[in-house]
């Protein structure tokens, strides 16, 4: 399984970006999966911010991004997106996507946003929000 993130960049506060996480090594149509977005700012722990879990048909958001970020998937492209609106300087971080396959249950929002749940990770993409 490989995950490749793209779409990061520099944006002014209040602006928008859309991150993409393209998966290979498995097909969205063939297996239940959970794909989550995490971010890590310098000197801080990796933070789970959003997840899509197809076994539950649910999405999850951490409180700091709820109402501003939207996660979605495109099965035809084997890609998960993170639409980020109303960006703030505190959103500045390296953003990672991570995947877990064959999941048949959910672990609730807190559980699904734990880094340890995910064995497969992308390389990260930098998001910088200027004030």
Summarize the structure.
The protein has 131 residues and is mainly beta. Helix content is 4%, strand content 50%.
Please explain how this structure is put together.
It contains one helix and eleven strands; from the N terminus they run E-E-E-E-E-E-E-E-E-H-E-E. With 131 residues, the chain is mainly β. Strands 2, 4, 5, 6, 9, 10 and 11 form a seven-stranded mixed β-sheet that branches. A four-stranded antiparallel β-sheet has the order 1-3-8-7, with no helix packed on it. A hairpin with a 6-residue loop joins strand 4 and strand 5. It is globular, with a radius of gyration of 14 Å.
Features of the shown structure:
131 residues, mainly beta, seven-stranded mixed beta sheet, four-stranded antiparallel beta sheet, 1 helix, globular
Please specify the SSE layout and strand pairing.
Blueprint lengths: L1 E5 L2 E4 L4 E8 L8 E8 L6 E7 L4 E4 L7 E6 L4 E6 L8 E9 L6 H5 L7 E2 L3 E6 L1
Parallel strand pairs: 2-11
Antiparallel strand pairs: 1-3, 3-8, 4-5, 4-9, 5-6, 7-8, 9-10, 9-11
Task: Specify Rg, calculated over alpha carbons.
Answer: 14 Å
- What portion of the residues fall into strands of 2 or more residues? over 45%
Number of helices: 1
Summarize model confidence as the mean pLDDT.
96
Q: Can you count the beta strands?
A: 11
Q: Percent range for helical residues?
A: under 10%
Roughly how many Å apart are the termini?
37 Å
Alpha-beta classification: mainly beta
Order of H and E elements: EEEEEEEEEHEE
Envelope shape = globular
Low-confidence stretches: none
Largest sheet: 7 strands, mixed
